[in-house]
Amino acid sequence: MAQAVRSKGLDLARVVAAALDELDDVGLDAISLRGVARRLDVQAPALYWYVSNKRALLEQTATELWRTPIRAVTVTDGDAIPPWPELIGEYMRRLRASLLSRRDGARAASSAVIVDDALLREIEPTLARFSAQGIAPDQLVDLFQTAQHATVGFCINEQHRTTEPVDVAERAKRLADTPHVAAMGELVVGDADARFARMTDLIIAAGHATLDGDASAQRASS
């Protein structure tokens, strides 16, 4: 079996790439090891050299969706490090683009964990640099986790909204007797890019409230 797998030029990267293409074609609910194997022109047991079951396949697939966003906001020891608000905004934008690039991408990423230790190790210099600036790693991780969950949820809604697009202006006319409610239309169902930008700004503002508040408390107690 090992020789047959090698003769096909199979490796984990090819398996994950095939899984992403299969996700595009059949969706998250229908993806299977058998379908991915068929795409690679091998038997399903050949994939067990790389993924032990469907859950492991989905975790590898989700990790690939996170790879570019994470690398976009990590630095090496010698790099200049941007301010954390800039990194969080960039992470959210890159993550949204990655999730929307694949059918059911947001759902695929929503319940999986990163399983590439090498990718996780790439985060260490960034956390260390911020820690040296007085921002505790747990604070930064909490902020990025909040940003990540908000982005994934937003993208799930984008990819799986089942209603027809809303005519915001026509809706506002119907609700003219309740002007505050009428004004909600653009905020709730208006342009997705604008809504995502506002959500990003809110999360960064919350981060400022947390980090700036902690810094003020530390100065007051010293």
Can I get a quick summary?
It comes from Gordonia soli NBRC 108243. By secondary structure, the chain is mainly alpha-helical. The protein is built from 12 helices and no strands.
Features of this protein?
222 residues; mainly alpha; Tetracycline Repressor, domain 2; 12 helices; flat
Task: Describe it.
The chain is an all-alpha fold and 222 residues long. It has a domain at 77-221: Orthogonal Bundle (Tetracycline Repressor, domain 2). The chain has helices spanning 2-7, 12-26, 33-40, 54-72, 84-100, 105-110, 117-121, 124-132, 137-160, 168-174, 179-189, 192-221. The mean pLDDT is 89.
Shape: flat
| Number of E-type strands | 0
Query: What is the name of the CATH superfamily of one domain?
Result: Tetracycline Repressor, domain 2
The residue fraction in helices comes out at over 70%
Q: Mean pLDDT, rounded to whole units?
A: 89
CATH architecture label name of one domain: Orthogonal Bundle
| Secondary-structure-derived class | mainly alpha
Any idea what the radius of gyration is? 22 Å
Distance between the termini: 66 Å
Task: Write down the CATH class of one domain.
Answer: Mainly Alpha
Approximately how much beta-strand content do the residues carry? under 5%
